[in-house]
């Protein structure tokens, strides 16, 4: 059996960056070794389930480019791939642990356990562990509800062999006799994931560093059931720019939030792949296939990885440029921009300013200035709506009228409205009227874009076209009279 890995999220909310990074690392590792990557839904904690989360998780992963060989929707030879559909399997192995003496029934109810916590008792006091088999059987014959707990060995050292953190030793005295099977027949996370990883023949378990200490419990279960554990690979924590641990509770850390803000899927995926892994090389703008070819466990760091949105913006810009220079991808960007313009600005849907050719020109001109498509109509609305020209908004009103008249005449005569030709006439107007070129540009910028800063003004004019530029000069001239 070759490499088989799994990503096993709980459908309790949106997919956050940490979970997405784990999914991507699993996918890269499997792809690089021509293995299988499995999606398994861990829904045993029924009280925390959020309707629609499973579908949302799958959509987010698909958007990022993660492809699974086996999943709830695809099926596969090791299914079902939803834990709530595998209850009989967990109950079978719980009975094995009971019969073999590695597990025991616990009849302590919620009230007693709560009382222990209120008295300050750390963990379960193992009361039911002391029951004889006869006493336990009598309780069960009376129909008393019970959980199944793991009988953790006393005074031992549990060793976890991890590909990133090396050999980690945990004293068994610090491990509680964990519940494996609840009274409702559902397994706990720790029990279910061990059973599933074994039965699905998972070779490597890649997951967050926060699970490292819990892995000691898993090792005890593997030993109790006589199974060989997989290779454990714990990934470094993700932290915010302030050093705070990144979690789904932090607002704006879901994959969906980055998708809604307009980040490109390839950029988010590459950015996440580089968090805690140093094998991606210096060059950014790589595809998942390129990253998978270089992925190795030896490149994974132990140190927390900082989620720096500035770096994500930089990565997004590189991917944006790559898309812009590919005709098929550029057409997709143009369609996205059209949608954003419609939802942000009041523009007629049949307007020529929403034509793909026009939108492509806008994107080309803004190539060095934008990272996110939804920001374009917000930051550069002048490509679709003229600025509101007033006497106060036009600088140097005493000479603006003459300047606008001169410019209108010159541009009206142009048969070639290219950037170079427009730039030549802007300079010519300054010379003819004896006006500093800086003043000419200020007046033109106020009339055409209504902002102090913009891409090269001649380029903006060329994209807008002669008719639109002359109309804006006319409105500005009226305003300064």
Features:
481 residues; mainly alpha; Rossmann fold; 4 domains; 19 helices; elongated
Could you provide a short overview of the structure?
The protein is mainly alpha-helical.
What does this structure look like?
This protein has helices spanning 17-32, 53-64, 87-100, 110-118, 133-141, 189-199, 215-225, 255-260, 265-273, 288-294, 309-324, 327-344, 356-365, 376-379, 397-412, 419-433, 437-448, 457-464, 466-480; strands at residues 4-7, 36-39, 103-106, 147-150, 157-162, 166-171, 179-181, 204-208, 231-235, 238-239, 305-306. It is built from 19 helices and eleven strands. With 481 residues, the chain is mainly alpha-helical. Helix 17 packs across helix 19. The termini are far apart. The chain has a three-stranded antiparallel sheet. It has a two-stranded parallel ribbon with strand order 1-2. It has a two-stranded antiparallel sheet with strand order 5-6. The chain folds into four domains: 4-75 and 238-306, Rossmann fold, CATH 3.40.50; 86-235, HUPs (Rossmann fold, 3-Layer(aba) Sandwich), CATH 3.40.50; 327-383; 397-480, Arc Repressor Mutant, subunit A (Orthogonal Bundle), CATH 1.10.10. The mean pLDDT is 94.
């Amino acid at each position: 059996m070759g490499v088989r890995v799994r990503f096993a999220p709980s459908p309790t909310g949106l997919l956050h960056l940490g979970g997405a990074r784990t999914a991507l690392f699993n996918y890269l590792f499997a792809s690089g070794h021509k293995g299988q990557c499995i999606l398994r839904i861990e829904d045993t904690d029924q009280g925390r389930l959020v309707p629609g989360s499973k579908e949302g998780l799958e959509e987010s992963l698909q958007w990022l480019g993660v492809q699974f060989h086996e999943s709830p929707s695809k099926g596969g030879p090791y299914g079902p791939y939803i834990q709530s559909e595998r209850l009989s399997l967990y109950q079978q192995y719980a009975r094995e642990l009971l019969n073999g003496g590695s597990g025991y029934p616990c009849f302590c109810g919620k009230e007693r356990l709560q009382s222990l916590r209120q008295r300050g008792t750390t963990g379960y006091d193992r009361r039911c562990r002391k029951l004889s088999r006869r006493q336990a059987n009598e309780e069960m014959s009376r129909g008393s509800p019970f959980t199944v707990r793991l009988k953790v060995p006393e005074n031992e050292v549990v060793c976890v062999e991890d590909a990133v953190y090396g050999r980690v030793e945990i004293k068994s005295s610090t491990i509680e006799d964990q519940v494996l099977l609840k009274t409702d027949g559902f397994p706990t996370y720790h029990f279910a994931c061990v059973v599933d990883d074994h039965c699905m023949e998972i070779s490597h378990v890649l997951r967050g560093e926060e699970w490292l200490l819990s892995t000691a419990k898993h090792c005890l279960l593997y030993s109790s059931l006589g199974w060989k554990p997989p290779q454990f690979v714990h990934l470094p924590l993700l932290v915010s720019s302030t050093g705070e641990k990144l979690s789904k509770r932090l607002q704006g850390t879901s994959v969906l939030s980055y998708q809604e803000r307009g980040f490109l899927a390839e950029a988010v995926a590459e950015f996440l792949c580089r968090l805690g892994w140093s094998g991606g090389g210096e060059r950014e703008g790589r595809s998942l296939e390129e990253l998978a070819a270089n992925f190795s466990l030896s490149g994974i760091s132990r140190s927390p990885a900082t989620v720096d949105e500035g770096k994500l913006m930089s990565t997004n810009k590189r991917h944006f440029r790559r898309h812009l220079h590919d005709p098929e991808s550029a057409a997709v960007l143009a369609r996205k921009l059209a949608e954003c313009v419609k939802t942000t600005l009041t523009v007629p849907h049949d307007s020529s300013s929403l034509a793909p050719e026009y939108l492509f020109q806008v994107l080309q001109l803004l190539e060095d200035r934008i990272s996110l498509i939804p920001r374009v109509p917000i930051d550069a609305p002048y490509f679709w709506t003229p600025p509101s020209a007033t006497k106060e908004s036009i600088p140097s009103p005493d000479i603006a009228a003459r300047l606008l008249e001169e410019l209108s005449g010159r541009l009206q005569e142009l048969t070639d409205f290219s950037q170079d030709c427009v730039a030549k006439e802007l300079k010519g107007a300054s010379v003819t009227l004896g006006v500093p070129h800086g003043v000419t540009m200020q007046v033109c910028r106020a009339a055409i874009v209504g902002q102090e800063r913009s891409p090269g003004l001649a380029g903006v004019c060329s994209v807008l076209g002669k008719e639109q530029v002359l109309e804006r000069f006319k409105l500005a001239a009226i305003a300064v009279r």
